[in-house]
Amino acid sequence: MSTRKVVLEVKGLSVQLQREEGPAAQILSDVALTLAQDEVIGIIGESGSGKTVLSRALVNWVRAPLRVTSGSLLYRGRDLFRLPESEMQRLRGREIAYIGSDPGSALDPTLPVGNQIVEKLCAINPSLTKSEATAQALRVLDAVRIPSPKQRFHEFPFQFSGGMMQRAMIVDALVTNPAFLVADNITQPLDVTVAAQILRLLRELQRDFNTAIIFVSSALGVVNEIADSVLVLASGKVVEEQPVRSLVAAPEHDYTRQLIRDVPRIWSDGGASGPVSAEPAGERETVLSVRDVAKFYEVRDRRRLFGRRTVQAVRGVTFDAYKGENLGIVGESGCGKSTLSRLLSHLEAPDRGQILFKGQDIAHMSSKQILALRHRFQLLLQDPYNAIPPHLNIGRTIAEALLVHGGLRRKEIDERVRSTMAEVGLPAEIHDSLPVGLSAGQRQRVNIARAMVLDPELLILDETLSALDQVEQGKLLALFERLQVRRGITYVYITHDLSMVRRVCNRIAVMYLGRIVELATNEATFFNPSHPYTRALLSAVPVIEERPYKAETYLLEGEPPDPIDIPPGCTFRTRCPFAFDRCAAEDPILLRRGPADFAACHLGDEAAAREGRSLPRVFESTR
Amino acid sequence: MIFALDFFLRRLSQGIVIVVLVALLIFTLLRVVPGDPVRIMLGPMTAPSVMEATAKKLGLRDPIPVQFGRYLLQVAHGDLGHSFIRSAQGGSTGGSRGGNTFDTENRAPVVELIRSTVPYSLLLAGLGVLFSLIIAVPIGLAAGLNSSRWPYRVALYLSAVLVSLPNVWLGVVFILIFSARTGWLPAIGYQGPSYAILPALVLAVELAPVMIRAISVSVAANLLENYVAVGQVRGLSRYRMITWHVLRNASIPLLNLLGVQIVGILLGSLFVVEYIFNYPGIGLLMINAVFQRDFPIIQAVAILACTVLVCINILVDFAATNIDRRLQY
Amino acid sequence: MASDLTIGAARPARKRSMGLGAGMLVQAWRTAEFKVGLVVFIGLMLISIFGPDLLGLSATRFDVAARFLPPMPLDGSRWPHLLGTDQLGRDLFVRSFIGLRNALVIGVTSVIGMFLVGSLVGMVAGYWSGWVSLVLMRLTDAQMSIPVIILAITILGVSRPTPASIILVLILAGWPAYARFARSATLSERRREYVKGAQILGAMDPRILFVHIAPNILPPIAFVAILDVARMMIFEAIFGFIGIGVQPPTPTFGTIIADGMKYLINAWWITTIPGLLLAISLCSINLMGGALERARNKRLQGVG
Q1: Is residue A558 part of a domain?
Q2: What values do phi and psi take at A383, rounded to 5?
Q3: Cys-Cys with C145: which of A52, A71, A357, B306 at CB 3.0–4.6 Å?
Q4: Interface contact C275-B172, CB threshold 8 A
């Protein structure tokens, strides 16, 4: 045990939830931990383990219908549970800080962010004058690397991105130099590169301010990055507590072992996590061919009276998808994935370019013409709870697809519906029930059945599995495989999930700010990516394995530029650690660097030039 | 600054369109629905030829678009026309005598009629809103801040009861109780400001439930917002969160309520209440005008009401965008 | 939850276990005020159907000997005139309940009418945006600026108003509000995932509108329309009071109150008792409607 001062000591903490009917539910049982100064403790638990309740309890913020039934919360020797509310209120914000997982709603939306930080400062320290507090707030905003802090000070919460607001909340929490901080899942709503920045920031500040931190998360990889020791929480009980390195290497409890086993691996699983089969690209037919597709939106320019500005959501995307393969398209928020999926599924027409489905340009077809082709390619959406109509029964929902296209008799439709239901694993008896009682996994199967009943050749999956848990995802991926083998379907996976594309996709396209910046085979993407953005992504993903791309070399700074004000030249150069002068002048296009690998970066070109050759451009051939 | 300019330009131009549309609607409605104003003006005994001649002179036989165009031009110059029925001295014509006694040169200008009645209506409306605020704000706030306890139930039942009292009936009951039986307050007509109290109370009963509901819903919903809990964890007191943050956020939808809905209700109920109590405001003027088919007054008051509503709508929306900047985007 | 190795933010999926309409009803049923309102309302209905026959009373028969009888249990009252009689000896109990019946018929019919017309217009305006929607919305704005009373007097103030014309005027006055509700509901419903899903399947717009959107947005609007029944009944009384309502000898609240005003000092019950009955029945309707509206708001907010 270290000789550092103990800041917080929890003994025997139990919390119950009072329900409307029935007995109270036990949320936490006999939780204990000790937090020393300067220490970072991680608490890891799945959803339902009680970690959110625990994080609230640690700052004595347990409100009805939750109730602390036993235990003590000793802060510097005083039991917070026994403290009168006025005393407790004095501690909150000043010596005990808390950051939640929803940065967007943490502040009053009608007041500027800076004013609210000042408000907190003056409330905590009444002797501070307004101008002193303002100066202090500005200083700290600058310290957390929020760009143009003076301007940001007067801006409103909705003008801050998620990552920036989380920085502001960290500022708000640490500005009074609290003794300890509870961070509850603070990186979950953020993109991975932004989350990595936040974690790094937190570590720096923790060192500077000497704050003890309790970091609660559901991702072992994140906890691995930041904590010294870890508590594993399962069903309200602490099942294991160890320093983080030894926990990962040698877990003691079965639950922890299971947890570690279930964390998907990217690099250390080798061939086992590769996709089913990848025939050589040259011999297969092209099912989908996207050629220089672009889409712009107009928004009102607030700076001029009747002006308009253009948001360039998709700025020239080109790729092919071959029969029987799985193509993955990954990217963070704002990269244009969702717009692209809308274009691919003909919900909107592109402003430029072609979308060729088996040779026919569907981009500019009318609805009538499309109807005939519709049954050959389909799109599956993410949200299982809202993607199927709530007022029709299952059989009718699946039959809808056939009814829309017409031409079949009732009996035939019924047969097709039932056989499709069996094929996707839906029990026959739910044919006449409403979607009310179904689980997320079953609802997605209804979704799949609805698409399958049309016998499509191409299926676009837009985050279809993102809302499901690990186990369900596995089952559905197996289903997709079976269907692919039997019917020869081509899949395009549009997703955030790197482990899923690692496991399933033959080729992967990485999007940034409306363009594809890298398109390569599975192996190449993960083990030899050539674009700095791909490397940055891989370096920022929180994992528990040894990763080939170190954060220090590749970590990005700042936020992606606004799709309205796209800088000239390579759009990535503002954040690229390797940018050189050519990047500011010339906008790179996809260059071939391997038999099936492409990247839009001048670095590859430079490297090739040094070897005396130049890389072919993508329009020449994609095979 | 730019935003304000853009906002007002857009909204004012839309508003003008609406006002013109309403004017056209009323205009057409009056001339399409049966009921000849000339008949009422001159009395049913007059010879048809005289009626026709008068009608032509007043321009009532021209096609409707022509009449409307002429009317718009007139209004643009500030002239709202002259009453068909009322004469400048304050009396009104409409008898069974012959056409020669109808004094077409001496009809009251509508602007004057409106100007003489509007102050009374303003007094009544103002008093009504004041009374309803006195009732509604404390109850609404208490209900919103304590949404699971008894103040909420009280507000609920009180609102349901108040909104179920028809204003015609309530007016009669009030006259019975406060005037006829006890003589505390005067009831019919107007001989001093105290004559506005009873009608204002009837108005207040009608407005209060709407206010109570809006206030309690808005406050209760805002209390549930994340930032209220987070603010307290950050170190701000609950009192501060409520007074400085919740109330401000809750007031945004209330602006719309107070501005638009209340004024909308007033514009209708004012007329009825004035009629019940024979209170000489613009409502009584309007109702009588409609019965007498006095087109100029009807048109003028309708346009005035619509303009007021549109302006308040615009002002309220602008105020809302200043409190909640998200609305500007 | 999804894999830890996500690089972006996954949006959480929200659970909706039953449709909005059914859910509203169930939730409202749980509240005390809904049950109170329902019980009172049903009670009044039963009395209005069976009461007059049980007591052997008629609405229009004059009985000059029984004029100005006060309601029971005041002095001078006489069985079976529970609520007293008016200046012509007509029994007030029966007159009030018949007035209630007429008011209800007018109220319910006009609300059904404005609901149908308004919802259709609103759904069309909400689904197909563009200048059609703009024009329709400006039209509703314009019409909402005209007070109902003025509209009513203008149209009804000339000839003998019939229940049909009154209903028509009320529908005319009320449809814009429903058009607005339906339009905003359609706009937000249109963005829902399953509409996207249907479009991807290739479904055409009218199909989506009527098969998918309508069943989801109409029940909540319909339930809250109950509140408007009460409002329309009040308007009907106002019309009667001013003289443009259903004409005598059919008893309506408005005419009863207006007639009775003359006798306010001596026979106050002629004016006040029928109005009291109206107020009680409206109260029961408003309790039910209010509970439904609160249930809807709660469901939309995701609480409860």
Answers
A1: yes
A2: -85, 105
A3: B306
A4: yes
Residues of B with CB under 8 A from a CB of A: 2-3, 5-6, 225-227, 229-237, 240, 244-245, 248-249, 252, 323-326, 328-329
* Same domain for A294 and A236: no
Evaluate whether residue C75 is within a structural domain: no
Closest listed residue to residue C7, CA positions, set A537, A335, A501: A537
Is B87 in contact with B107 (CB distance < 8 Å)? yes
| pLDDT attached to residue A271 | 43
Mean pLDDT of A386-411: 82
A595 near A281, Cβ under 8 Å?
yes
**pTM, full prediction:** 0.80
Q: Of C26, C9, C18, whose CA–CA distance to C291 is shortest?
A: C26
Query: A152 and A29, same structural domain?
Result: yes
Q: What is the CATH number of the domain that holds A509?
A: 3.40.50.300
Q: Cα–Cα distance between B34 and A458 in angstroms, integer?
A: 66
CB contacts < 8 A (A, C):
150
CA–CA separation, A333 and A560 (whole Å): 10
Tell me, yes or no, whether A187 and A250 share the same domain. yes
Helical segments of C128-268, H only: 131-144, 148-156, 163-190, 193-201, 205-207, 214-242, 253-260
* A192 & A292 share domain: no
CA distance B188 to B230: 56
Nearest to A536 by CA among A515, A518, A550: A550
| A434 pLDDT more than 50 | yes
| Residue B196 DSSP symbol | G
B18: chain C residues, CB-CB within 8 Å: 138, 141-142, 145
Q: Give a yes or no: residue C84 inside a domain.
A: no
Q: Name A240's bridge partners.
A: A232
Strand order in A308-322's β-sheet?
A308-322, A286-300, A352-357, A360-361
Instruction: Say yes or no: A153 and A42 in one domain.
Output: yes
Unique residue bearing structure tokens 């919900």: A347
C6 domain-assigned: yes
Q: Which residue, A262, A294, A309, sits at the end of a domain?
A: A262
Min CA distance, C20 vs chain A (Å)?
Answer: 10
Average pLDDT score over residue span A119-144:
87
CB-based contacts of C142, cutoff 8 Å, min separation 6: B18, B21, B22, B25, B306
CA atoms within 13 A on the CB side of C230: 28
Is C147 part of a structural domain of the chain? yes
Those of residues 216-255 in A touching chain C at CB distance below 8 A are: 218-222
Residues A262-311: pLDDT tens digits?
A: 777 777 765 444 555 555 545 678 888 888 899 988 877 766 666 777 88
B76 by Cβ neighbours in 10 Å (0-12 / 13-18 / 19+) ranks as exposed
| Domain stops at, among A199, A232, A262 | A262
Maximum Cα–Cα distance for chain B, whole Å? 86
Q: What is the enclosing helix (H) or strand (E) of A329?
A: strand A326-330
| Residue C221 CA neighbour count, 13 Å, CB half | 28
The parent domain of residue A145 ranges over 6-262
Query: ipTM score of the complex?
Result: 0.80
- Residue C8: give its domain's CATH number: 1.10.3720.10
Whether A354 and A318 map to the same domain: the answer is yes
